[in-house]
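INTERNAL AUDIT FORM
Audit reference: QA-55
Scope: verify that the stored structure record matches its stored sequence.
Auditor: D.O.
Record contents follow.
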Amino acid sequence: MENTDSRKHLLQLSITFLIFVIPSFAIELSDTFLFENSQFDFSFDRQRIAEGQWWRLLVGHFDHLSWFHLGLNALFLGVLLFTFSGLGRAVRIVSLLCAFFLIISVMIWFCSPGLSVYVGLSGGLYGLLVYALYQDHLYPLWLRVLVFLGLLVKVVYEYFADASEQVAELIGGSVATDVHVYGVFAGVLSVIFLRIFRI
């Protein structure tokens, strides 16, 4: 029975991983081969959203600056999914990430007017990490608190010190550090929501 549960859990994680990686991969393929002159064709694009392309609020998070950028985010997602067993079923993880993407997009719209174009899963993944740290009791509380504090230090440092030029070179564009802050904020909101409604 335990072996069957373990296989089901692994299948759920794999499906969740593919739900986010396959669209990102397809978008990156289209960016590379179909829209070579328009790198951000599926991005969160402020001007196009203002013109009514609301789908960009969600889909923009699946676009990436480069294959390396996509690879980093896929690795981050894989590590999260296979490290934290308390994340729950695929439906919950997908719902959470999509909610995080929308919260982040709204925050970009209102709090970062200078950010006209954004791509990437990382903001939502930071939110998922915060949620996982709260939800997964496999690890001792002191360790989860320590990782959360380390995450806070990282995003605040990057926000004020600007992300390193080496990272920007690797991913093919500047790091939107404010989006990482919004992702952590979205994760904290999800924890507060869980505490209030005991879901």
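Auditor finding: record pair retrieved intact. The domain at 2-197 is CATH 1.20.1540.10 (Rhomboid-like fold).
Action required: none
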